[in-house]
Amino acid sequence: MAKDMLRKGSIHCVAKEAGVSIVTVSRVFNDYPHVSARMRERVLSAARECGYTPRVVSKPRVLGALVGHLDSLTAGDYKTRLILYIVQAAARSGYLVEFIPQTAIELATKSLVNGIIQIALTPQDAEALDALPKVPTVVINGALADPSWYLVGSDHYEEARVACLYLLARGHRRIGLVLDELEGWGVENRARGYRDAMQSAGVATVPEPLAADRLSPSEIADGLQHLDATACLNFTDNYGLAVLDHLVVERAVSIPADLSVICLEDSAVSPFYHPRLTTVAQPLDRIAGCVVETIAHLLDKKEVSRETLFESRLIERHSVTAP
User: Fold this and answer.
1) What is the mean predicted confidence (pLDDT) over 94-121?
2) Lowest-confidence pick of 24-33, 137-146, 186-195
3) Above 70 in pLDDT, residue 192?
4) H helices present in the chain, as ranges
5) Between vectors from CA 149 to CA 82 and to CA 121, what angle results, nearest 5°?
6) Closest to 156 measured CA to CA, from 198, 125, 181, 192
7) Residue 104 CB coordination number (10 Å)
8) Non-local CB neighbours of 267 within 8 Å, separated by 6+ positions
């Protein structure tokens, strides 16, 4: 039996000839990224000496998705729907998807992935990604912390500008803006779009955004009432419903009679809330498809745009009226 195992043309012969384990031989022939060039050549030389030709087995194509704030996933929200669309788009192109939370980013360096997708990482999370595998990396709706990365997302500046112009066209001038936080690619672009729209309408003093990561729903309501706001862009993924609930239940604010509201689309809630919410909807299915396509093109050495931004859609329902 032992002689059979060491016969010419076997993986056991290669391991003995190279003086390494069978696991190391397997890693070399499966293109394991952390095998040194010297070790790789040593094993390949032994394989030639033994006349060993590995059976060609098609390896699964895998995309690694680094996801931030997994603890805040809810049915129908931005991240949940985006993840679903990514899985569907990847499957159509023959890829599997491995999900890695930002709290375990080090796992990304141990995974054999063909490409990496970044979802909802903070700037601090992104800065910690200095040891990722050298594979195509696409950021969804985020800043490019590395010049080799690519961006796919929605035009957050235009989302806020168009939504604000929609309110301005209906006579509103005291318009508040609620964001998840104040720092980051998406929120900063939305704040800029809001400011530009307000200034284009001749609003002399543009209110500062209210940040849900710093203020409670009660404090946000205080801020809106301090502004004497007649309308609000409630652009927070994580706390939008909590803000609405506090306004309606605790402050007896009538929407839209007392306060017109435009929210971010949550397909599980927005069409069923009372009143039905006017929203901004990102084309998440198109974004997901473009992410997978971008990685596939990069793997095929094709040229792709460094940044691809899609236009979002304003869905008119019943939460906006004239002041």
Assistant:
1) 81
2) 24-33
3) yes
4) 2-5, 11-18, 22-29, 37-50, 78-92, 123-127, 156-169, 185-200, 217-226, 240-245, 284-299
5) 45
6) 192
7) 9
8) 76, 81
CA distance 126 to 16: 43
Q: Are 255 and 294 in contact (CB under 8 A)?
A: no
pLDDT over threshold 70, residue 212: yes
Strand, coil or helix: 309? strand
Q: Of 133, 156, 171, 161, whose CA–CA distance to 260 is shortest?
A: 171
Task: Please write the tens of the pLDDT for every residue from 179-191.
Answer: 999 999 999 999 9
pLDDT at residue 3 in the model: 43
Q: Can you name the CATH fold of 61-154+284-310?
A: Rossmann fold (3.40.50)
CA distance 105 to 67: 9
When comparing pLDDT for 152 and 22, which is higher? 152
Band of the pLDDT at 26, cuts 50, 70, 90?
confident
* % of the chain surpassing 70 pLDDT: 89
Tokens representing 4 are 């059979």
Weakest-pLDDT range from 114-123, 212-221, 226-235, 261-270: 114-123
Return the structure tokens found at 253: 């604010």
pLDDT exceeds cutoff 70 at 173: yes
Interhelix angle 185-200/156-169, rounded to 10 degrees, is 30
Residue 276 per-residue DSSP state? P
The residue type at 284: L
Tell me which fold the domain 2-50 belongs to. 434 Repressor (Amino-terminal Domain) (1.10.260)
Pairing of strands 278-281, 313-315: antiparallel
Which helix (H) or strand (E) segment is 176 a member of?
A: strand 175-179
Domain ranges of the chain: 2-50, 61-154+284-310, 156-281
Q: What is the phi/psi pair of residue 288, to 5°?
A: -60, -45
Which superfamily does 156-281 belong to?
Response regulator (3.40.50.2300)
